[in-house]
């Protein structure tokens, strides 16, 4: 029960005593609440009714990592592959050198791309598990539940209603960033900037709800800059290149983002982007930046001292040991091993995951696999060639309410957003330790949580 909690770590940080008596409401939010935007009514994932509180030190660390990681990833083709198209094609594009050429053409335009770091907080601090790049980043939706959290927890306000705790509106921050990038890419010769959002996999009714919601945020962000424009949504194949401009019906489009995965990029989109007619972060080169094997490359480059001293230290401190699963020798904790023998003999210390996976798919945590299952997973990974092995970075057990409102240890995964020089905040997925199955992901049953930063 809540009265007996004395553990060092709770989701309420060192403010636990201020909130401990506020237990009269259910442990999960009713997302059908009148204050929740229509598009998020009946939200598909459970959301805890309690906030996660973090101090300035944690905020500053998440902010630095979100700024630095995309910039360091951008340097991999030159520092690791020496811009060799053949090597880049073999590593990222299944040997297709034409795709690699196109990918590098896009990469060399050096456009900023939004990212979300997935991290765990261990006894040694934050560890980066994945870097997700592009526009199809989930987690920003959680801010829409801020009003429900604040209503349930008056402690989040001071007596004079000043803001003791803040949560960052990720979508609002993203829209401001998005407009800056569009202006940077195409200029603003006129006062209208139109955005196209590919929603081919979304049903018409849901598409209209989503578009209305996005368009409202986009227009608000434009108005702050004295600009006009709208967001449009349809199948990306409906876009046409006419007289050098990209059109959706009779509207010139200045920015294109793709919210779905594995969408084929049309010639019209590619040409418009190469000619600087659109801001397009989800280009062919994104395949390079989104590959999970990059974490192993960054550690290798840092060990060789290829970055600035502070960046080398950051990478070696915050990225756990990571390696592509291959038949090779490797160094782990200062000793040399055959990689497959190391993984076989120490399964509880490692995770194997697909280099291009998402939503927790094809992630295998050794301690939750039998010896036979682990050997089969390792054999598949060796044959496939697109898997990584990573040192298992176990989350500290944070005390949090379970579905029955009992405070028990939970493991947390943190999703921190970085949009260029904009820090977009962080959200959390958590799973009760006693029901832990290894993978902590919304799509596999985790509970989501909104994060507030402690201001004083």
From TrEMBL:
Highest taxon of source: Bacteria
UniProt-listed SUPFAM superfamilies: Glutathione synthetase ATP-binding domain-like
Identification of the protein by name: Glutathionylspermidine synthase pre-ATP-grasp-like domain-containing protein
């Amino acid at each position: 029960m809540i009265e007996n909690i004395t553990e060092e770590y709770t989701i309420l940080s060192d403010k636990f005593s201020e909130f401990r008596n506020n237990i009269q409401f259910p442990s999960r939010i009713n997302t059908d609440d009148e204050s929740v935007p229509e598009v998020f009514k009946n939200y598909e994932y459970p959301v805890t009714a309690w906030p996660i509180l973090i101090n300035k030190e944690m905020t500053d660390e998440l902010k630095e990592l979100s700024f630095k990681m995309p910039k360091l990833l951008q340097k991999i083709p030159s520092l690791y592959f020496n811009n060799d198209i053949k090597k880049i094609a073999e590593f990222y594009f299944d040997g297709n050198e034409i795709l690699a050429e196109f990918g590098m053409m896009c990469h060399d335009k050096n456009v900023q791309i939004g990212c979300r770091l997935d991290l765990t907080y261990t006894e040694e601090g934050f560890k980066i598990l994945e870097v997700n790049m592009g526009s199809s980043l989930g987690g920003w939706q959680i801010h829409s539940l801020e009003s429900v959290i604040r209503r349930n927890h008056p402690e989040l306000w001071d007596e004079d209603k000043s803001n003791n705790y803040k949560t960052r509106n990720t979508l609002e921050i993203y829209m401001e960033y998005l407009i800056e990038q569009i202006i940077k890419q195409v200029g603003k010769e006129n006062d209208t900037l139109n955005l196209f959002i590919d929603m081919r996999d979304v049903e018409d009714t849901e598409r209209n709800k989503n578009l209305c919601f996005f368009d409202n945020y986009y227009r608000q962000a434009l108005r702050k800059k004295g600009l006009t424009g709208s967001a449009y949504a349809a199948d990306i194949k409906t876009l046409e290149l006419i007289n050098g401009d990209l059109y959706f019906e009779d509207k010139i489009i200045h920015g294109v983002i793709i919210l779905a995965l594995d969408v084929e990029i049309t010639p019209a989109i590619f040409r418009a982007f190469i000619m600087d007619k659109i801001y397009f972060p989800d280009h062919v080169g994104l395949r390079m930046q989104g590959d999970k094997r990059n974490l192993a490359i960054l550690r290798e480059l840092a060990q060789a001292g290829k970055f600035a001293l502070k960046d080398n230290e950051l990478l070696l401190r915050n990225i756990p040991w990571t390696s592509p699963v291959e038949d090779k020798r490797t160094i782990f904790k200062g000793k040399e091993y055959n990689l497959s023998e190391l993984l076989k003999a120490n399964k509880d210390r490692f995770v194997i995951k697909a280099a291009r996976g998402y939503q927790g798919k094809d992630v295998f945590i050794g301690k939750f696999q039998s010896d036979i299952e682990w050997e089969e997973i390792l054999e598949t990974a060796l044959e496939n060639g697109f898997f990584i092995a990573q040192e298992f970075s176990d989350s500290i057990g944070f005390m949090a309410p379970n579905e029955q409102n009992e405070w028990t240890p939970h493991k947390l995964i943190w999703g921190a957003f970085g949009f260029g020089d904009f820090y977009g905040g962080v959200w959390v997925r958590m799973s009760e330790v006693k029901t832990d199955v290894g993978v902590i992901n919304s799509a596999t049953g985790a509970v989501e949580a909104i994060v507030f930063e402690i201001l004083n």
